[in-house]
């Protein structure tokens, strides 16, 4: 895990030939050939897209690990490096904060538009800061903690499974006429894989921030959110930061009312930067926990 995160900090996401980009193209082809307005068709398409890469990761991990522990280590670290996006999270969020600090609202709107799916052209400074902060908190789970969790549980195949499921949810998991049935499996399977990591991420935010407020917001506000996993993550994160997020947001030309998240001051550029620090502190906490568990297992094996 440490090696993968160091690679991510050093290299960032691959600019060319990222495996997730290739997987996205594969998913488009599978959808084009297999789309039917039925849940079974969506489940079959999900399995066709996900099963071969996960099986390949499992076989390679076993073969390389059997050939040499160092080859196995390098493969695991490389796969996890491709699955996490901690540096990318900052690379997308910091330009939003910098533009807000410089008073360049149009530039901030354009930058946050690369982070979120909502319409950004008419957002105020507060709404831009809220959108970016929400994205950092939610993607802290989706792009970092979820991948670390499934890697810890299932190794490289677990990280591959999680990131591919997360990618298909982003492509197919919409409640639109085209995907309401076909994308049902992608959305539900992503929810299932994210259920425990999201709650661990929410608890991590609480431990690394204003703990009592974070837990209170999680308990009171998360059940009101549409997403069973984004609700706990963002409510706890907003409470940990001491900011108020949520509220109305524009999607597809219409404003949607959303519940409030967190409590405290209105978000600004500083809230975006504090959210990034909160995620990084959480990652450090997870690495420390992994180290302690690894040392305990090593001690038990050599007792």
UniProtKB/TrEMBL annotation:
The keyword Membrane applies. It is found in: Cell membrane. The chain crosses the membrane at residues 41-61, 143-165, 283-300. InterPro entries: Cobalamin_biosynth_CobD/CbiB. GO terms for cellular component: plasma membrane. Its main location: membrane. It is a multi-pass membrane protein. Pathway: Cofactor biosynthesis; adenosylcobalamin biosynthesis. It comes from the Bacteria. Keywords: Cell membrane, Cobalamin biosynthesis, Membrane, Transmembrane, Transmembrane helix. HAMAP family: CobD_CbiB. This is Cobalamin biosynthesis protein CobD. The lineage of its organism: Bacteria, Pseudomonadati, Pseudomonadota, Gammaproteobacteria, Lysobacterales.
């Amino acid at each position: 895990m440490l090696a993968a995160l160091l690679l991510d900090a050093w290299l960032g996401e691959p600019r060319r030939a990222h495996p997730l980009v290739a997987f996205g193209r594969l998913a488009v082809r599978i959808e084009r050939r297999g789309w039917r307005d039925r849940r079974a068709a969506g489940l079959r398409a999900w399995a066709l897209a996900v099963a071969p890469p996960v099986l390949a990761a499992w076989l390679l991990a076993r073969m390389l690990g059997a050939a040499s522990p160092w080859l196995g280590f390098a493969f695991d670290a490389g796969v996890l490096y491709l699955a996490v996006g901690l540096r990318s999270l900052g690379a997308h969020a910091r330009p939003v904060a910098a533009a807000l600090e410089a008073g360049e609202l149009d530039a901030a709107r354009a930058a946050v538009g690369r982070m979120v799916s909502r319409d950004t052209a008419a957002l105020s400074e507060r709404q831009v800061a809220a959108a970016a902060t929400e994205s950092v908190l939610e993607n802290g789970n989706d792009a970092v903690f979820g991948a670390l969790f499934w890697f810890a549980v299932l190794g490289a195949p677990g990280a591959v499974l999680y990131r591919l499921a997360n990618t298909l949810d982003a492509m197919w998991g919409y409640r639109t006429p085209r995907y309401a049935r076909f994308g049902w499996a992608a959305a539900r399977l992503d929810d299932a894989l994210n259920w425990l990591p999201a709650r661990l991420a929410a608890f991590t935010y609480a431990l690394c921030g204003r703990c009592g407020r974070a837990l209170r917001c999680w308990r009171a506000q998360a059940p009101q959110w549409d997403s069973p996993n984004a609700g706990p993550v963002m409510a706890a994160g907003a409470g940990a930061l001491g900011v108020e997020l949520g509220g109305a947001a524009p999607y597809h030309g219409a404003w949607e009312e959303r519940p409030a998240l967190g409590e405290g001051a209105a978000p600004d550029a500083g809230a975006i930067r504090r959210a990034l620090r909160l995620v990084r502190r959480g990652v450090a906490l997870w690495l420390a926990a992994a180290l302690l568990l690894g040392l305990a297992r090593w001690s038990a094996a050599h007792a």
